[in-house]
């Protein structure tokens, strides 16, 4: 692990995309925390009014554009980026546009079938107004503030020439370790997920927001610890490509969410027509993407803190050892 200290802070590939995903994940994580912690757990929202909860989620997400832009800009600047407007635009547009496209396609199907559950055009116009008139400017403000901050200084300088990564053992293969690591975080939400899906698709009231807040905190802790542990294993095998892997490690929780949603569809719902099936998996895909961003950002931030912490200690140990050697040589 100490042999790769000059490469461990080498910027990842596609650093703009990486910074964008982390910023959006932070925005989603804070949205869930505020909604569950302040509104739902304190009984400010009624379970009998799911529309109020959805409205609260949307408004919190829109108003939390500043943390998203701030996080993306600080990472982008650390990676050597110089154009803060570019990272602000990608953060404000990329992930929300993907969610909006999925939602729009699903509603095209509902409009075609003249369904009463279709979202009205006026609601779409209101969502676009919130997105471009409030959320996007807030993201730009956050990116500007983040870019004005001093750049994160790496504890150890980066080598000019990248070190060759040795052959890795089977248990540290990227695909295997990423997929396996998502099992434990998913186990934290497995039980609550059943009741949440029932409230969405079986029209049952969900009353356990206080308990859901506890599960949410446990999920954050589990994602953090799992990602840190696997990151440590990879560093011990001299693999310094931890940036994307830390995001995907905890983000793989979303894969198991999608698989469980498919199991729930096959065993609990009595749906046979193609339109309803398309709608179910369309909305599930949207929720999977949101969960992927959230858990991925949590895992990366925990891993980022861990790596900087251990290599800061290595740096000071190295400085102290050099000083001791110099003093010893002086008195010889």
UniProtKB/TrEMBL annotation:
Record has Lipid biosynthesis as a keyword: no
GO cellular component: cytoplasm; membrane
Membrane topology (UniProt): Multi-pass membrane protein
GO biological process, one term: protein localization to membrane
Stretch forming the signal peptide: none
Pfam families (UniProt xref): EMP70 (PF02990)
Swiss-Prot/TrEMBL keywords: Membrane, Signal, Transmembrane, Transmembrane helix
Compartment(s): Membrane
Coiled coil location: none
Residues that span the membrane, as ranges: 21-45, 51-75, 87-111, 123-147, 175-197, 209-235, 247-266, 278-307
InterPro entries with a match to the protein in the record: EMP70
Family that this chain belongs to: Belongs to the nonaspanin (TM9SF) (TC 9.A.2) family.
Name of the protein in question: Transmembrane 9 superfamily member
Protein source organism: Rotaria sordida
């Amino acid at each position: 692990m100490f042999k790769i200290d000059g490469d461990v802070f080498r910027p990842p590939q596609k650093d703009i995309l990486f910074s964008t995903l982390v910023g959006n994940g932070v925005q989603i994580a804070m949205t869930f925390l505020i909604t569950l912690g302040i509104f739902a757990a304190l009984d400010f929202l009624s379970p009998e009014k799911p529309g109020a909860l959805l409205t609260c989620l949307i408004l919190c997400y829109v108003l939390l554009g500043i943390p998203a832009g701030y996080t993306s800009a600080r990472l982008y600047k650390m990676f050597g980026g110089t154009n803060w407007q570019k990272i602000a635009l990608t953060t404000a547009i990329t992930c929300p546009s993907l969610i909006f496209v999925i939602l729009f396609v699903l509603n095209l199907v509902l409009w075609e079938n003249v369904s009463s559950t279709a979202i009205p055009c006026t609601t779409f116009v209101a969502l676009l107004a919130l997105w471009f008139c409030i959320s996007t400017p807030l993201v730009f403000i956050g990116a500007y503030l983040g870019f004005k901050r001093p750049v994160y200084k790496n504890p150890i300088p980066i080598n000019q020439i990248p070190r060759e990564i040795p052959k890795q053992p089977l248990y540290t293969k990227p695909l295997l370790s990423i997929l396996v690591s998502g099992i434990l975080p998913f186990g934290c939400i497995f039980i609550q997920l059943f009741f949440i899906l029932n409230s969405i698709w079986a029209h049952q009231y969900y009353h356990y927001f206080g308990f859901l807040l506890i599960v949410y905190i446990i999920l954050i802790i589990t994602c953090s610890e799992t990602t840190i542990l696997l990151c440590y294993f990879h560093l011990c095998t001299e693999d310094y490509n931890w940036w994307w892997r830390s995001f995907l490690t905890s983000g793989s929780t979303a894969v198991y969410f999608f698989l469980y949603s498919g199991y729930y569809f096959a065993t609990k719902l009595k749906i046979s027509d193609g339109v309803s099936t398309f709608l179910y998996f369309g909305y599930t895909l949207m929720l999977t993407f949101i969960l992927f961003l959230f858990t991925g950002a949590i895992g990366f931030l925990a891993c980022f803190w861990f790596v900087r912490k251990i290599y800061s200690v290595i740096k000071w140990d190295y400085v102290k050892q050099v000083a001791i050697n110099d003093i010893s040589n002086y008195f010889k």
